[in-house]
Amino acid sequence: MSNIIIYPILIPILTASLALIAFKNRELQRWLSVIGSVATFIAGCVLLYVVYTEGIQVLQPGNWEAPFGISMVADLFSALMVCVTGLMAMTISIYSLGDMDKQRESFGFQPLFQILIFGVIGAFLTGDLFNLYVWFEVMLITSFVLLAIGNGKAQLDGAVKYVVINLLSSLIFLAGVGIMYGLTGTLNLAAMAQALQDTENTGLVITASMMFLVSFGIKSAVFPLFFWLPASYHTPPVTITAIFGALLTKVGVYSLVRVFTLLFTQDIGYTHTILLWISVPTMVVGVLGAASQYDVRKILSFHIVSQIGYMIMGLAFFTKIALAGVIYYILHNILAKTNLFLVAGIAQKLVGSFHLSRLGGLYKNYPLVSSLFAISAISLAGLPPLTGFWAKYTVIYAGLEVEQWVVIGFALAVGLMTMFSMTKIWMGAYWSPLPDTAPVVADKNFKPVAGAQLIALLLPTIIIAGFIVVLGIFGEPFYALLFEAADQLLDPSMYINAVLNP
Amino acid sequence: MEPLLAIVIGILVALSVFLMLRRNLVRVVIGIVILSNAVNLLIFTLGRLDRGIPPLIASGEYVPSGAFANPLPQALVLTAIVIGFGLLSYALVLVYRAYTEVGTLNVDEMRVAEPPYKGEELPAGVIKGEDEA
Prior knowledge:
- The complex is a heterodimer of chains A (502) and B (133).
- Chain A is mostly helical and 502 residues long.
- Chain A has helices spanning 7-21, 26-54, 76-99, 102-106, 109-125, 129-148, 153-184, 189-197, 202-220, 228-232, 238-262, 268-291, 296-317, 320-351, 362-365, 367-381, 387-401, 405-431, 439-442, 452-473, 476-490, 492-500, and strands at residues 57-59, 72-74.
- Chain A is globular.
- Chain B has a two-stranded parallel sheet.
- The termini of chain B are far apart.
- Chain B is built from three helices and two strands; from the N terminus they run H-H-H-E-E.
- Helices cover 54% and strands 3% of the residues of chain B.
- Chains A and B meet through helix 6, helix 7 and helix 10 of A and helix 2, helix 3 and strand 1 of B.
């Protein structure tokens, strides 16, 4: 029993409440948001340290013993995700100081952002299936508003698709929760896993597992359920796209990993083979979609889909090394993908466009921005020694161990295509000369961002790039952490005992 | 009782799927309303149906005596109804805003966020967005 687990949840909602009280005072809201996000990050790091040194942490709020109350559980995987969510909250809230316009902030961007973080962290820490649904809804309703806030024509169009498909996915999830409750008589994940160990009704369990697969599959944008993502993610301002790309799909992947390691391990030959064969088209279609686009935000949106494929592939291999690789891949992808979106936003503020045909000359004029892009792009493409290489290496090494040659072949080819995509952005936006159609040349009213605003934009990207470099080059101690997290995932009895027999 | 509810849930799901496959956005949203009610009924049914035995604790005791109806599914359904209500009212406002901005409810014609590619032939009536290129 430990109260430490509740702080990463309490701090964002407290910050959001204070920001709502200060609704009219835009400056105060902004600084509250930054301070709150830094505090969330620190709380996440403390939680990670405590979980690492003292094992799985469990809190039974209101002293209702499991399985009767709602448990909050933090194993190493959850704690790592909370920690990196805190890091994203911190960096993106700083970035929003330079990026977010007055109109959107006066509609309440900052409190909404904090409530989104609140929902995401809650989903990572809950140990109860119905409660997970509630956290998903908290996260979804704020993301709906964030996506539509500002009322741009394209934004509303993108939001309609996003909202409808996500409402559907939530309902499928809820139906799955209902079936699991009817089957096991409990909603506590640990108690449910225990009840499933000696269930005889495997057919119904697998049916429910497929409902979870479809629902979380929509949320994490796997093939063939990914169409809403490239249709909506490029419409809002880049701050919002970055936080969506960093966290929302990863919550879907987190939930997939959680239910397919803890609950649905009765018939791995069936469920995990399905996972394996949806991972391949997810990777391939995502990267081909990216190759066909010329808007930087759309290229990066399609790459989210493609990278999700690697994570699902690692989950499908279901070995210790593979799961360690999945966790590393999620963390790496959050860092690299967010940074690419943030740098694309800076480039847009400097040259005036997201479109490759109107970008150029960044390498000549802004070497620092270019090197930040290069670090993230090289990491995403998987070149050593940055995080992307180790993440891909670990997942693919696990695949070689279980002898899935075809899948590995696709994974490697997709890695090459990712390299091609990143080269395309590099050639189009950074190396090529500045075209005459670029707004910075063609539009007299366009002024490149400078001064304090530029520093607010650059600081978070430098922090994230620093994490990418350090985790890539000095990754050895980090791997010990990942393997322990994978051990906890592979052996559900640790989770069950921590919750039910404290 | 269970077979009857199972049939009702099946009809509701079929109806909602039919509505969600329509091109008119308002019908799609109504389809989601019906699906959400079907799922609530599903949870209620799966929590076992017992009639006439309320889960009340007699005075002086700590647990209800004898058989009693499971109160948890009702709490779950109540939560789901409240959440669904909030989400649906947001969805309706969003659809209305999208209608006033984009000027159509036909989902095939809403292409503002994904403008057509160069040289792509589109059916008549499609609302074209502004491509940056």
